[in-house]
């Protein structure tokens, strides 16, 4: 039998490539659902992060003041010169350390202000004591507060 005859009787079948069993990647719908879920999570976490950031600025301000008082107390005892710390309660809120001819100003972070500063000036004596005891209260935009108390002995505490 002739091979050409046989070939002419067999219908040609289009060649179909087999599809992969497991396709890699994400479909557009899966990608959009993932982005929506991510957006919702970020949207819910932003207010929490803002409150956390605000409370950390408040705490950092109080701790910074305690450390400043402790450092300046040590400086007063080491140099034998009194050191004065003024609390500038008017805007922009800050405290100023004056020791001899030098002075340095530390501004409070944005959103942190003085609720009260009694007295508005502390003198750290060369014997390590303070001229008067006092309290400084900081507050932030959310109404949280942090208190620094200074005892006559010169000990500064954050509460």
Describe what is shown at a glance.
The protein is of the alpha+beta class and 159 residues long.
Written overview of the protein:
- The protein has one domain: 3-Layer(bab) Sandwich (minor pseudopilin epsh fold), CATH 3.55.40.
- Helix content is 37%, strand content 27%.
- The strands form two sheets. A four-stranded antiparallel sheet has the order 3-2-1-5. The chain has a four-stranded antiparallel sheet with strand order 4-6-7-8, covered by helices on one side.
- β6 (134-139) and β7 form a beta hairpin.
- With 159 residues, the protein is of the alpha+beta class.
- The chain is rod-shaped.
What is the string of helix and strand elements?
HHEEEEEEEE
Oligomeric state of this protein: single chain
Assign the structural class, choosing from mainly alpha, mainly beta, alpha/beta, alpha+beta, or little secondary structure.
alpha+beta
| CATH topology group | minor pseudopilin epsh fold
- Please give the number of β-strands: 8
Beta fraction of the residues? Answer: 25-35%
Widest sheet: strand ordering: 3-2-1-5
Number of helices: 2
| Cα-to-Cα separation, first versus last residue | 106 Å
Mean pLDDT: 88
Strand count, sense and barrel status of the largest sheet are: 4 strands, antiparallel
Helical percent range?
A: 25-40%
Query: How many structural domains are formed by the residues?
Result: 1
Shape: rod-shaped
């Amino acid at each position: 039998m002739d091979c050409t005859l046989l070939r002419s009787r067999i219908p040609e079948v289009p060649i179909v490539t087999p599809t992969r069993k497991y396709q890699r990647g994400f479909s557009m719908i899966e990608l959009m659902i993932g982005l929506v879920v991510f957006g919702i999570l970020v949207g819910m976490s932003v207010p929490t992060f803002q409150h956390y950031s605000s409370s950390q600025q408040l705490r950092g301000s109080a701790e910074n003041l305690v450390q400043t008082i402790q450092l300046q107390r040590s400086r007063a005892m080491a140099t034998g010169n009194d050191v004065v710390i003024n609390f500038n309660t008017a805007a922009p809120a800050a405290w100023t350390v004056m020791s001899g001819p030098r002075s340095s100003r530390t501004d409070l972070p944005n959103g942190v202000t003085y609720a009260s500063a009694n007295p508005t000036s502390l003198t750290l004596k060369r014997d390590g004591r303070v001229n008067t005891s006092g309290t400084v209260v900081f507050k932030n935009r959310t109404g949280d507060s942090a208190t620094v108390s200074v005892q006559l002995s010169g000990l500064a505490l954050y509460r």
